[in-house]
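name: query_chain
kind: protein
chains: 1
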Amino acid sequence: MKIGIIIGRIGSVDGVALETEKWIKILKRLGHEVFVISGEFEFWKMDHKHHYRFPELSFFSAGVKWEQRKAFMEPDKDVDPLLEHIEKLSNKIEKKLSQWVSSNKIEVILSENASALPCHISMGVAIKKLIINRGLPIVTHDHDFHWERGERYVSAHSEINKLVNDTFPLLLPDVRHAVINTFGLETFKNKFQLDATLVPNVMDFDRAYGIPNKDNSYFLRNLGVAQNEIALLQATRIVRRKGIETAVSLIEKLNDKKLKLVITGNNNDDQNRAYYNEIIDQIHDLNLTSQVIFASHMVKDHKDLSDVYAHGRACTYFSTYEGFGNAFIEAVLAKKPIFVNNYKPVYMQDIGSKGFETVILEDNNLTDEKVKEMADIIYNPERCKEIGLFNYNLGKKYFSFDILEEKLRSLFNF
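structure:
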């Protein structure tokens, strides 16, 4: 089958982009031909027969930035210009999508969170128009929803709120919804009386990852971690819900100058860099400027991330909210111990209940007891290896590509 994927950005390190890459790999393994249309391909090597960049789909385009600002952040009194903008831009996108479908003879659409979260309203509206006008079958990969983000996607305009509720998620007949956690399943059942398919985030447990070798032996040293120092890894983007301030506090409580916290992600998704600046102030106030390393300039792709994991001792993952938690499974794949907050609504229900060995915080409360538990692991390399191997075997059982292949075989059986 010819499958067309619509996504705002791909080739980046956010969960949606990462999972989409895995879906593409498995869909190809199942014999499908996959086409991708996206606003950004970032670090993705484009194959121009199958990949098409359409700038209007980018979350960072001027039109989308204006749309988001006027819809949710700085609304004008008159909503009409915004509604006209959405109608005009969605029509333009729908026309381009329809041409793309025709030129590639696409038989089924895969919408990657574009029909779940209104971070690009016009794209979601355009996809809805495309499905209505073309009668195409569609699978929507719904990673998270607007009602899970507090006030972020609540508008001062009732017209915008109605548009959002009517479009996200896509509730047309015969749409197949794939959700990434049990909470999503329950939401579709309770809120919409619909069944969805649970497809957990996965990793390729058949490939080498986070393995020390001569090529990466100096990677952490080049970041500023000396040979006799220990690196804890915060392998996430810098956004508030990642709870990075707790990781910084942990470094302070452990009180060891030979401990370094390496933060791999960038702050591109941090509005006005407000959270990033708070972290900088915290680091300064705790006198940790020599112990916290921002590494996004050196960690730009999967290989770089693997090289960081290769020589890190353990991982911090104190998120307060996640749709799933790619970084957790990634640490499991790299055979690294992980310290985690019991993040909502997913961790214990979908991951922790599987039996992974971790140190778990509640509400990011760094008690003396929990800090000691972490220290006992950090300073015991053999214990780190034992935990890493135990968690790896569990991860392979529950979150491997074999699980994804089974799910996609069923989802795309049209």
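note: The chain has a mean pLDDT of 95.
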